[in-house]
Amino acid sequence: MTSLAEVVPHSWIYLEVKDAKGEPQMWAMEATGRTGLQKVGITPDYVKPGDQVKARCHHLRDGSNGCLLGFLKAKDGSVKDWDGNNAPARLISKTDSACRDKKQSWKRQKHGTVG
C-alpha cells in the first residue's frame, strides 16, 4: 500500500501491484467515503504505507490499473468491506484461502481478485 485518501464522497487507496512479469504497477482503488469507512472501523491507522494487503475488487472496464474496491485484507489479517455495503467478510473466505500461499504479494486473478 502506498497511500490512503479518506475523502468525501469517495475514498481512494493506492497500491503498488506486481504484474505478470514482476514489474511494479500503480493501482488506484475507489472505496466508499470517509464516513462509510469509519462505520466499519477503518481509520487512518488501519492500513499504512508499506503494508502488504490483499484486495477483492471490480476491475475497470477499460482494463486500466484500477478498480472499485470491495474487500481489503489488512496486515493484521482482518477483512473489511470498503464499498459501503457492509457485507460480511466471510463472503470472501474462499478467495482468501486460494490467495494465502502466493509468493507474490499481489497478482491479478481472473475472478476480480487482486492479491
What does this structure look like?
This protein is mainly β and 115 residues long. It has one domain. 11% of the residues lie in helices and 33% in strands. The chain contains 2 helices and 7 strands. It has helices spanning 34-39, 93-99; strands at residues 3-5, 11-18, 24-31, 54-59, 66-73, 79-81, 113-114. Strands 1, 2, 3, 4, 5, 6 and 7 form a 7-stranded mixed beta sheet that branches. A hairpin with a 5-residue loop joins strand 1 (3-5) and strand 2 (11-18).
Shape: globular
Number of separate structural domains: 1
Give the distance, in angstroms, between the N- and C-terminal Cα atoms: 12 Å
Helical proportion, percent range: 10-25%
Count all strands and give the number: 7
Number of contiguous helices: 2
Strand content: 25-35%
Regions with little confidence, pLDDT below 50 for 5+ residues: 91-113
| Overall pLDDT score | 78
Kindly provide the radius of gyration, computed on alpha-carbon positions and rounded to a whole number of angstroms.
13 Å
State the secondary-structure class: mainly beta
- Tell me the series of helices and strands, N- to C-terminal: EEEHEEEHE
Biggest β-sheet description: 7 strands, mixed
Looking at how many chains there are and whether they match, the oligomeric state comes to single chain
